[in-house]
Amino acid sequence: MSSMQLRTLTFAVSMVVAGAGVAQEAGGRTRFILAASWQPAFCQTNQKKAECASQTGERPDATNFSLHGLWPMRQDYCGVSAEQKAADKDGDWNKLPEVTLAAETKTALAKAMPGTQSGLERHEWVKHGTCTKMSADDYFGVGVHLVGALNASAVRDLFAANIGKPVKADAIKAAFDKSFGPGAGDRVKMSCRRAGNVRMISELTIGLSEAAGAASAKSAGLADLIQGAGKTSFGCDEGVVDAAGF
Fold first, then answer.
1. Number of helices (H), then strands (E), in the chain
2. Which of 106, 128, 173, 246 could be 101's S-S partner, Cβ–Cβ 3.0 to 4.6 Å?
3. Band (181; pLDDT cuts 50, 70, 90)
4. How many domains does the chain have?
C-alpha cells in the first residue's frame, strides 16, 4: 500500500469514528414526555378550578413541580370509545370512568398531581395512559416517581429560590445538566403564559427514552431516561417563577 493510499484509509477511518461520536452525542429518540407544571402559574389563569381555589403557600405544589402527565409520543386515545373521547375533549372529565388505583398510589398521586381535584387523572389515563402497556397503577406510579426525582434536583432548588423573580433559560438548562448530566438541558422545553403584564413559567416538558414506558421506570434514574432522549429547542427563554396565591 502506498503512502497516499494509507493516508486516504486513515482519513476515512477517522471520519467514521468522528461520525459515530456525533451520533452518540445526539442521544437517542424521545419516546415519552414528562410534563411538569409550575402550579401557581397555571392557577393564575384557572382560578376557579378546585385545586387552584384551595391552593395555599404551605401546600407542596406552591414550591415544587406538579405532575401534569406522562405522554407517549404521537399516540393518544388508544382503545377509547367515541363517547369517552368526546367527553374528554369537552373537558368534562368527571364524566370519564374513575381510575382504579391502590390506596398508596392514590395518596401519592393526590400530592404530586393537585389536578386530581378536577379529575385530571381521568383525562391523563384516557388520553395518554391507554397508549402505554402499563396498568393505571404502574402508569401513575412512574409519573409520581419521575416528578419526585425532578423535585429532588437542582432544578426545583433553582425555582424555589427564585419565587417571584425571573429565571433565564440558561440557568434552568445548567441546573438540568448539574443534576441529570451534561446535555440534559437540551432535552427540555419550557412553556410560559402571560398573567397581566407578567410572563410566567408554566410548565417544563422533559424528553424521555422508551424505558419510561415500563413499570420498571418506577425505580429508574431520571438522568438515564433523559439522556436516552433526543434533543429539542428550549422554547420560552425567560419567565417569572410565580408564587402561590392570586
1. 10, 6
2. 106
3. very high
4. 1
